[in-house]
Write a structure and sequence with these properties.
alpha+beta; Alpha-Beta Plaits; 5-stranded antiparallel beta sheet; 4-stranded antiparallel beta sheet
């Protein structure tokens, strides 16, 4: 099972490297790590997704929390968080399948960001499981290239 960990850390050189090295040394199965600035320039938000049971996820969060540059850490899998990923896919098209690909893009509320006679590039942001479903739907077509971003997550509600 995948578990999402939200980390607020000081915006200093090397912090991301220390966290990823820590996770690698401890043999955590990391699915994705995404880091980005926040409205406060002194801190960075990181989203870490680890594969394993709850014990593994809690252990990963505890290990990350021990680092001196970590300001806050929280588990984001309890239904009170929104988790999203982004994907760009370039698909090979011909006259026979162009309409099918466009229909799938419309149903999934994807953006067509580039199109040529032979290709269509689709952009989509959604829950990770919906991205997986979209990938299965387009698997019958030629996937020329793809870039899938790691998860980003925020707790819902007032705080």
């Amino acid at each position: 099972m995948k578990h999402t960990i939200g980390v607020i850390m000081e915006n200093k050189p090397g912090v991301l490297s220390r966290i990823s090295t820590l996770l690698a040394r401890r043999n955590f199965n990391v699915d994705s790590i995404t880091a980005s600035p926040t409205s406060d320039h002194d801190v960075t938000r990181m989203t870490v997704v680890v594969e394993g049971d709850q014990y593994v996820a809690d252990n990963a969060a505890n290990e990350i929390g021990k680092l001196e540059d970590v300001v806050e850490i929280e588990m984001l899998n309890d239904g009170s968080a929104k988790i999203r990923e982004i994907i760009l896919m370039k698909l090979g098209v011909d006259k026979a399948n162009r309409g099918k690909i466009i229909d799938i893009a419309k149903v999934y509320d994807c953006k067509i960001v580039d199109a040529t006679d032979d290709t269509i590039m689709i952009e989509h942001s959604d829950k990770p499981e919906n991205i997986d479903t979209l990938l299965k739907l387009v698997s019958e077509f030629e996937l020329i290239s793809m870039a899938r971003g790691g998860a980003v997550a925020l707790r819902t509600g007032d705080k």
